[in-house]
Write a structure and sequence with these properties.
Helix 7 runs parallel beside helix 9, helix 7 packs across helix 12 and helix 9 crosses helix 12. Strand 1, helix 1 and strand 2 form a beta-alpha-beta unit. This protein is globular. The chain has two domains: about 200 residues, NAD(P)-binding Rossmann-like Domain (Rossmann fold), CATH 3.40.50.720; about 100 residues, UDP-galactose 4-epimerase, domain 1. The mean pLDDT is about 95. The chain has about 325 residues and is of the alpha/beta class. It starts with a strand and ends with a helix. Helix content is about 45%, strand content about 15%. The strands form four sheets. A six-stranded parallel beta sheet has the order 3-2-1-4-5-7, with helices on both faces. It has twelve helices and 14 strands. Bound molecules: nicotinamide-adenine-dinucleotide and 2-amino-3-ketobutyric acid. The site of nicotinamide-adenine-dinucleotide (NAD) has 26 residues, from strand 9. The site of 2-amino-3-ketobutyric acid (AKB) has 10 residues, from loops.
Length: about 325
């Protein structure tokens, strides 16, 4: 029987991935943990504990006491926040991952780990269009450097200790349940809230800046598919490229206008513009498609329709 620990469960991905894992493995077998209390549907449908991933002693006690067999480690400082406190972000992102990798090495019951990487592993010298799985990687942000170093550590532990740690380079994720956690792609979530609340949005990303994105339902489906695949099908032992949809702020605004004709977008780029410009515009995910059947269902139109209708329900009741 699988017993799953989700770390960072109250965040944008964790608040949805935990519920999806509970559907598969049973509510009582999926332990949601975070530094902060999670939303009601997390705390009321299964175990929820306050746990700091940096506290390695409590972490190992928790894993042994609850007979954990799989870990999903989602806690991290994202790109925008990381630039404000680079050394702190580096420490949190790397020390937490190394805690988990070492736990997987030491505790025999743990037979699978998931840790997300990001399109932030790519940098200004990477080919921008249809970025291949294997290419130049010279990230210029502390977040990207930590994700690239993380990928190398994941591959090292997989090979050296014969472990099964799996990873995906998520693009910017778009969802309505939990607001985004301090990244560069957050504009593409904020825009929907502001469109519904005020009919207008001031974008911190400039017109013409195309970035790879994905609707959360597709990202959760991809994560479950990767984690469920037989190990022998996986040709990548670091992190898989993942691709959903690519768009610019004005393309997203035009799609929103189809539902809210008076919606207005304006532009006031900040420090995150430079981060966005260092990342790819689109990603080649053919290896993920071949190895474990990545299948994307949401295009820009379908995603916009769902986001607007769910956020309208959330805000206006
Ligand atoms: P988020 O910021 O929304 O959530 C992270 C959660 O981790 C938060 O709830 C936070 O309270 C918790 N946390 C922080 N420090 C902790 C600690 N010391 N101990 C325990 N919990 C702690 O982030 P997210 O968007 O859900 O991202 C999850 C993972 O996916 C991260 O590794 C991120 O880099 C990666 N990722 C996210 C995206 C995206 O668009 N959301 C894209 C690429 C990669
Ligand atoms: C961010 O913008 O930092 C994240 C990511 C793409 O990793 N959404």
């Amino acid at each position: 029987m699988e017993r799953i620990l989700v770390i960072g469960a109250a965040g944008q991905i964790g608040s949805e991935l935990t519920l999806a894992l509970r559907k598969v493995y049973g509510n009582e077998n999926v332990f949601a943990t975070d530094l902060r209390i999670g939303p009601k549907d997390l705390t009321e449908t299964g175990p929820f504990h306050i746990l700091d991933v940096m506290d390695d002693k409590r972490l190992i006690h928790f894993v042994i006491r609850h007979k954990i067999t799989q870990i999903y480690h989602l806690a991290a400082v994202l790109s925008g926040n990381a630039e404000k406190l680079p050394l702190q972000a580096w420490h949190i992102n790397m020390a937490s991952l190394l805690n988990i990798l070492d736990l997987a090495k030491e505790v025999e019951d743990i037979h699978k780990v998931f840790w997300p990487s990001s399109i932030a592993v790519f940098g200004p010298s990477t080919p921008k269009v249809n970025t291949p799985q294997l290419t130049i990687m010279e990230p210029s942000t502390v977040y990207g450097i930590s994700k690239l170093a993380g990928e190398r550590w994941v591959e090292y532990y997989n090979h050296k200790y014969n472990l099964d740690i799996r990873s995906i380079r998520y693009p910017g994720l778009i969802s309505y349940k939990t607001e985004a956690g301090g990244g560069t792609t957050d504009y593409a979530v904020e825009i929907f809230y502001e469109a519904v609340r005020n009919g207008a949005y001031e974008s911190f990303i400039k017109q013409g800046t195309e970035m790879p994105m994905m609707y959360m339902e597709d990202a959760i489906d991809a994560t479950l598919k990767l984690m469920d695949s037989p190990k022998e099908n996986l040709s990548i032992s670091s992190a898989y490229n993942l691709a959903g949809i690519s768009f610019t702020p004005e393309q997203l605004a035009a799609e929103i206008k189809k539902h809210l004709p008076d919606f207005k977008i304006s532009y006031k780029p900040d420090f995150r513009q430079q981060i966005a410009e260092s990342w790819p515009q689109s990603i080649d995910a053919s290896v993920a498609k071949n190895d474990w059947g990545l299948n994307v269902k949401f295009d820009l139109a379908k995603m916009t329709e769902v986001m607007l209708s769910e956020i309208t329900k959330k805000i206006k009741g």
